[in-house]
Amino acid sequence: MKKIIVLSFLISICMISYLSAQGKKQKKEKAETFTGTIKKKPWSKSTQSYCARGSDYFVLLQNDESEMVIQNNSTINLENWVDKKVKITGKKETRVIKANLNEQRPINPFEKDDGTFKCTVLDMKKIE
Fold it and tell me: How much of the chain, in percent, has pLDDT values that exceed 70?
């Protein structure tokens, strides 16, 4: 009987620790708010276009004139938001693209070229 009580106690402690760690992980992944203007960009031989992984793509032009490629995982049609001031809720994510060494791709002359390309995208959750 004592063994069952001790075992139940240990399992409870493990579950509490696990749930606490999950809660902390979710807090770290909290979304941020980004403001600026939505711009549509055509495909080009640019690092930004390569990062977008498609033909035409959208960026958020921020007040400091920097641009972030928008990763739209929602059903929101960004065409309706082009050239408008917006507030986007989401988070920055680093995208790692592994390319075939024989394909055209951006190359950083200061790094070893192993076919890996890294870039940052804005993973959009909500737009207003």
Answer: 71
